[in-house]
Design a protein that fits this description.
Rossmann fold; 8-stranded mixed sheet; globular; 18% strand
């Protein structure tokens, strides 16, 4: 039994009621929609019927949301609260499950996200989702897989090197990450209690030797940024025991290629890795507000590098 799976499973159970207790009226949910074979490849839809009726074309911008869980645990149901929150604000939220490590070794999770993204074409006529306005988002491990999908969308070389599926022809209009690592080697080598990060690396790659055989560009998303990228919003934390300050490396690359971006670093008392998921925390509301500002800028075509 991998220690990382034990720790994250306990975290899921303990934190589930703390993260998902708020109820939102008028939110429709459609759950466990398959987008591929196997028990992991399922997704849930959340949207406001009122918002859809009020939209000029009856279509809502899509938030394709990828859950965290240290790459080894978690699930879409543990992000129902954040999904309903953004659905209440007028987004068509797609909560995605993906194949967890070690069964889903690198880069399976990222390819599953691409599979789910492609599958949305099947629902274009049945649900009020606007596939011209897809924003890919995720927290922690999900933020990494989300970034991988975006990198694949804007670089055929990267996609082919990893053997990833083709992405939809309609590019994402933004990437929004919450406490995401962008370089997996830095993440797995980051000191954590009980060697959790190292164990996550073993789950993803088998061992450190296997990871070392991969070219740096395969593992470090920042090395695949180019001038074609969509705007990027990064919600990070000053005290992050898993991702550290990796958003700073991404900022440098985005600046280098003049990609519009915005970043917010949560630093309220108690803020840390993914505290935006706890509605009762002061820092959570500030992080969500910063994310909303970024998204509003993207949708109004007013995003600027800050």
């Amino acid at each position: 039994m991998h220690i990382s799976r034990v720790v994250f499973k306990i975290s899921d159970i303990v934190n589930h009621p703390l993260r998902n207790y708020i109820r939102y009226d008028g939110i429709r949910s459609v759950k466990n929609i398959p987008y591929g074979t196997g028990k992991f490849r399922r997704m849930d839809f959340y949207y406001s019927t009122k918002a859809a009726e009020a939209a000029p074309d009856g279509k809502l911008p899509v938030l394709l949301n990828v859950h965290g869980g240290g790459f080894v645990c978690g699930g879409k149901k543990y992000r129902s609260g954040i999904a309903k929150l953004f659905a209440s604000k007028g987004y068509f939220v797609v909560n995605v499950d993906y194949t967890l490590a070690p069964k889903g070794a690198f880069p399976t999770g990222g390819n599953d996200v691409i599979m789910a993204w492609n599958a949305l074409e099947l629902f274009d006529e049945r649900y009020p989702l606007d596939l011209e306005r897809v924003i890919i988002t995720g927290d922690s491990a999900g933020g990494y897989w989300a970034a991988m999908a975006v990198a694949a969308a804007f670089s055929d070389d990267y996609r082919l090197e990893l053997g990833l599926d083709e992405t939809p022809s309609r590019k994402p209009i933004a990437l929004l990450t919450f406490c995401a690592p962008f370089n997996l080697i830095k993440c797995t080598e980051h000191p954590t209690p009980m060697g959790i990060s190292e164990d996550i690396g073993d789950c993803l790659f088998g061992n450190a030797e296997n990871a070392a055989k991969l070219p740096p560009k395969a593992i470090d998303i920042t090395l695949n940024v180019n001038s074609d990228w969509c705007p990027v919003g990064m919600m990070a934390a000053a005290n992050d025991m898993f991702a550290g300050s990796q958003h700073k490396d991404m900022v440098k690359k985005l600046d280098e290629f003049s990609v519009p971006h915005s970043e917010y670093v949560a630093a309220e008392k108690g803020d840390g890795h993914c505290t935006h998921l706890y509605p009762f925390k002061k820092g959570s509301s500030k992080t969500i507000e910063a994310a909303e500002q970024f998204l509003n800028g993207v949708l109004s075509n007013k995003t600027r590098s800050v």
